[in-house]
Amino acid sequence: MMDKPFEVGGQYRNRNAAYEVLALADEYMTILYENGRVQTVGIRMQARIWANIQIDETPTPQPKSRIDKEDEGQDSWPIQELTEDVLQTFRAPHPADVIDQVFVAIENNPAWLARYENLVEHYSSQGKYGKMTVNSMIGRFTKDLTGMVTLQADNVSQNSLTKSFSTLVYAGQAQV
To answer: Of 44, 110, 113, 116, which has the highest C-beta tally within 10 A?
Structure first.
């Protein structure tokens, strides 16, 4: 704490209200509240109160959202979270058409479909080709979360949300 935390004429606050310092004398100071009340108070106590007010009013850094480094700054965690929620209802080992099955599950679950549609709308409003962005990220997250690799792209979808999907296999099963 500073030796002289207050100055005559300085504007400060305590738990009661804002005040101006009128005089400093040894361990006490005389203050004038906004409402006209004058009071003599201890400098040490007011210094602690003032320091705590400043700490309380200091902006705290916001936690960073989970952004994938390959994501080029797009805040994709809601898409990953939706994909995780859907995949939690599936049993491993996953079939080759797991991406298509994720979209079928989203399509058939009103809550997931509402989340999907909100994500598409959000990305569209950001100028990021909403449906294409959301669909490709769901595919990528499905692949990453299952630990599978792409076997073949451009398979015809069984859902109405996508036109095509990639089949996946576990790394040891990949046929080149």
So the answer is: 116
Residue 64 lies in a domain: no
Tell me if 121 is assigned to some domain.
yes
45 and 123 part of one domain: no
Both tokens of 51, joined, read 């320091």
Using one digit for the tens of pLDDT, what is the confidence trace for 10-24? 999 888 888 999 999
Q: Are residues 50 and 94 in the same domain?
A: no
Quick check: is 162 in a domain? Answer: yes
Give the structural domain span for 85.
Answer: 69-173
